[in-house]
What does this fold into?
Amino acid sequence: MLGNNVRQMGKVFDLGGKKISDLSVKEFYNLCHEVFVHGVICIKNQNLDVYSDYVSSLYRLGDAQLMRGLFGKECFEQGLDQIFRVGNINQDGTIKKGFKFAEYWHQDGDMWGHPQNYIVNWLLANKLPQIGGETAFFDCVGAINYLDQGLKEKLQKAIFNLKIPEIPDFKNINVKDYGLPELITHKIIYNHLITNQPHLYLGYESNKIEFEDGSEMNVNTLLSVLEQYRNLFYVHKYEDGDLILWDNVSTLHKSLGGYFDEPRLLFRGQSYMSSYHIELIKKIISI
It folds into this structure.
């Protein structure tokens, strides 16, 4: 039943003392290509300066500012609207008691159409709790291998319609203020623009999959069918200096929480890939 598309998520890379910002163009894009091959990768010992090394690296792969304004300034690192503070530590160092964020399966960027939703997420470990705080991933490429043929055929013609205010972390956002559509429609199965592998695209766990015959299935129902296949899941437990990158269109992710009021802070960046960056990666890896 398994095919060649079941991926080794979480592959670890050690740059031998180099920072990702020090890589040549070819080295950088070859490394970024591994993100799409594996879904998520971890680069060790990346103690980056967020104001220089980190931000400059984000821009090598795409626009890094499209989330500007969707969250308050207190959610970003001071003076940087490219770096989102993920965790329970306020800018003044105090702890947000009982904090929870993004503890549900989702794909960032689903409020944009295809291929504007090609986003690579970056998370740089800064302050780690003694317990909990992991990030989980689901392989939307490998999942295709476990679908029975009848369901796969139905999903080929299925869609979901997303209303942005229904996403838990965006429920208070007026989409018109940010030039976002009231409703966005996505197919459930796409071929990846870089790897050409078919993959599920599910948005977030409460979306309803709409089939051509008018029937529906909740994304959570589909995930419950697939949860028995443990090699579709990867959980990253952070260590100091970890930088993880993942492909938003071919993976789902969620925070596993569980750190209660232990201090936790990760610096998130996002690279919104244009067709130029997509074609650049394809060109460089072919050289």
The first helix runs from residue 25 to 38. The longest strand covers residues 119-127. The chain has a mean pLDDT of 92.
